């Protein structure tokens, strides 16, 4: 019946003694523990913003673009924008024709909407150049929505300032590739201008690749080429053969 107390004690359950049923000793024990911590433990509270927290290297703060020798490392491949779940990244690429620069493209403009960014780190994960990394900045404030859209000038940070994160990525990213493929800058430049392959071709005297067929040759069929003309009738397959009862169809 409603309002009737129900005894929920399990079979063989120990009963509280007199002091335990008063609860006071346990309360004082708990208070004693708290005062002991209060008096003897170091202070954990930080007086933010006067005291700033310096996050560990694995922390994911706002994403930034890595600047190397005055230009972005980014090769404008668009992978980060594709991978970004809330579609916070947009960019436009442009070709560059500087023989001294190993890159073939770089961003003409690059924007991240920090109101959309969820600090997931997917952009950093997919970037083949380690050109976009998660920084240690966590306290962003804006006066308007427009201010939250960071252009390339606010995104670029010198690689020297991001060395902690870059070293962290080097040590922890994709360790399973370690045996066969060492993750390092040399093989991380996705540009033909800088590929060892081109150097190798040069050393072998093959700086100009010769092809066996020109486009015109390939387009002109010769007599001994089988273009399927000798095939007689359609290929036999269970799908082409008439099914049972097909002959009875009108
Ligand atoms: S951290 Fe995530 S949400 Fe933010 S820009 Fe990168 S991929 Fe997009
Ligand atoms: S994935 Fe990296 S290299 Fe490609 S566009 Fe994004 S930042 Fe640039």
Please summarize what this structure is:
This protein is of the alpha+beta class. It has helices spanning 18-22, 24-40, 79-83, 122-126, 152-155, 163-172, 196-203, 215-219; strands spanning 63-68, 71-72, 89-95, 105-113, 132-134, 149-150, 156-158. 24% of the residues lie in helices and 13% in strands.
What brief labels describe this structure?
250 residues; alpha+beta; Alpha-Beta Plaits; four-stranded mixed β-sheet; three-stranded antiparallel β-sheet; disordered C terminus; binds iron/sulfur cluster
Helix and strand arrangement:
Layout: H1 18-22, H2 24-40, E1 63-68, E2 71-72, H3 79-83, E3 89-95, E4 105-113, H4 122-126, E5 132-134, E6 149-150, H5 152-155, E7 156-158, H6 163-172, H7 196-203, H8 215-219
Parallel strand pairs: 1-7
Antiparallel strand pairs: 1-2, 1-5, 3-4, 4-6
Bound molecules: iron/sulfur cluster (2 copies).
Description:
The protein has helices spanning 18-22, 24-40, 79-83, 122-126, 152-155, 163-172, 196-203, 215-219, and strands spanning 63-68, 71-72, 89-95, 105-113, 132-134, 149-150, 156-158. The chain has a domain at 63-177: Alpha-Beta Plaits (2-Layer Sandwich). The protein is built from eight helices and seven strands. It starts with 17 loop residues before the first helix and ends in a 31-residue tail after the last helix. Residues 210-219 and 238-250 have low confidence and may be disordered. It has 250 residues and is of the alpha+beta class. Strand 1 and strand 2 (71-72) form a beta hairpin. The structure holds iron/sulfur cluster (2 copies). One iron/sulfur cluster binds next to helix 3.
């Amino acid at each position: 019946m409603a309002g009737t107390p129900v005894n929920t004690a399990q079979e063989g359950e120990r009963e509280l003694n007199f002091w335990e049923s008063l609860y006071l000793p346990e309360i004082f024990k708990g208070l004693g523990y708290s005062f002991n911590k209060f008096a003897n433990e170091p202070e954990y509270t930080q007086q933010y913003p006067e005291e700033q927290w310096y996050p560990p290297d694995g922390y994911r703060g706002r994403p930034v673009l890595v600047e190397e020798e005055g230009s972005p490392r980014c090769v404008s491949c668009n992978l980060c924008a594709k991978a970004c779940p809330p579609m916070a990244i947009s960019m436009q690429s442009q070709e560059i024709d500087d023989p001294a620069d190993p890159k073939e493209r770089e961003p003409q403009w690059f924007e991240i909407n920090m109101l959309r960014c969820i600090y997931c780190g997917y952009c950093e994960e997919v970037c083949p150049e380690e050109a976009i990394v998660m920084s240690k900045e966590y306290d962003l404030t804006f006066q308007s929505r427009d201010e939250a859209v960071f252009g390339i000038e606010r995104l670029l940070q010198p690689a020297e300032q991001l060395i902690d994160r870059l070293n962290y990525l080097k040590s922890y990213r994709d360790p399973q590739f370690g045996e066969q493929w060492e993750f390092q800058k040399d093989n991380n430049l996705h540009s033909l201008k800088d590929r060892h392959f081109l150097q190798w071709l040069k050393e072998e005297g093959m700086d100009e690749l010769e092809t066996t067929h020109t486009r015109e040759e390939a387009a002109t069929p010769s007599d001994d080429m089988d273009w399927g003309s000798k095939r007689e009738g359609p290929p036999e397959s269970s799908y082409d053969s008439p099914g049972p009862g097909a002959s009875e169809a009108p």
